[in-house]
Write a structure and sequence with these properties.
- This protein is an alpha/beta fold and 312 residues long.
- Among the domains are: 100 residues, no CATH class; 73 residues, no CATH class.
- 58% of the residues lie in helices and 9% in strands.
- A 6-stranded mixed β-sheet has the order 5-3-2-1-7-8.
- Helix 14 links the parallel strand 7 and strand 8.
- The longest helix has 22 residues.
Length: 312
């Protein structure tokens, strides 16, 4: 059967099937007329796993195609996907993980604000984030075939210093108390269970004060994806904002030795949700990603369907 729909499988599914017989999944996708795809988000996670060959084998066996954002060069979100030949091994070998440096730079601050990294002082987190930003800029400048002028370089340095100053002066504790109070109120009695996606978001916003709600809606008006051009990462940011407001909650992200890895994985879930918004269906094996994707697409205006696969 010629594929009629595009199916975006999240990283969790590829991780679950790489060491088991997954011929059933390939047959099911063929019967449904679905074309499995993978994106840069997959390549980053597969490369960082230390087992890229295992994942490349799975992608090849499923005849997965590569999902490309035509607007990536201009840092714009293009709603129409472009599908290229898979070539999983070659893509994994040449893929760079600059996005991971951005995660290292900014996620610790967000993690602390949402209740994680309690034993680490804020100044230490801000200093570390600033160092990551400097390292990232140095790497990008070193790799650039067209080095910036002295004037541009001075502007870049000034911007880095301003960012560091803002991080160190940010009254994060004030914002942290407000956000934690919001999340605690939202999760009380787990009222969100069973609500339709849009009602969940209305419920989340009901705990914000009038100024906060007005600001949220000015940035993300209903069906915002249909009303204006988007930048790369904007849908990711929206999905992660819903997570931060309490749409889903996992205590393991805020306690224990692996809390940083779990929190970073949540951000990657939001990244997968953005990439999958160009496809007909998003398949995940994670209940949290399932709920977050449904709410993200329903509010932003994407027609992408979401399904949660159950594994034994």
């Amino acid at each position: 059967m010629i594929p009629r729909i595009t199916a975006y499988l999240d990283q969790g599914i590829y991780s679950k099937i790489r060491n088991i017989d997954h011929s059933w999944l390939g047959k099911t996708l063929i019967e449904l007329g679905a074309l499995p795809v993978f994106s840069d988000a997959h390549l980053t996670e597969m490369q960082n796993s230390g087992r890229p060959e295992e994942f490349a084998k799975v992608l090849e066996e499923l005849n997965a195609c590569y999902l490309r954002n035509p607007g990536a060069y201009h840092n714009s979100y293009h709603p129409i996907a472009s599908f290229d030949i898979g070539q999983a091994r070659a893509r994994l070998a040449s893929h760079t993980v600059e996005s991971e440096n951005y995660l290292k730079a900014f996620l610790p601050m967000l993690h602390h604000m949402l209740g994680g990294l309690r034993k680490t002082h804020l100044t230490e987190i801000a200093t570390g984030s600033s160092a990551e930003i400097k390292s990232l800029v140095d790497s990008l400048l070193a790799a650039s075939p067209d080095p910036p002028s002295e004037n541009d370089l001075e502007k870049i340095k000034a911007s880095i210093l301003a960012t560091e100053k803002n991080l160190l002066e940010w009254d994060i504790e004030k914002d942290k108390k407000s956000i934690l109070k919001q999340r605690e109120a939202v999760r009380k009695g787990d009222v969100l269970q069973g609500l339709p996606p849009l009602e969940k978001i209305d419920f989340l916003l009901s705990f914000l004060d009038e100024d906060q709600r007005t600001k949220f809606i000015s940035i993300y008006p209903p069906s915002f994806a249909l009303k204006r051009p988007l930048k790369n990462g904007e849908v990711t940011g929206f999905a992660f904002t819903l997570f931060g407001l309490g749409l889903i909650h996992d205590r393991k992200m805020y306690t224990g030795p692996r809390q940083e890895q779990r929190f970073a994985a949540q951000y990657r879930d939001a990244w997968h949700i953005e990439e999958a918004s160009r496809c007909d269906i998003f398949l995940t094996a994670d209940e949290g990603a399932f709920e977050l994707a449904k709410a993200t697409y329903a509010y932003s205006g994407f027609p992408t369907k979401v399904a949660c696969l159950k594994f034994p």
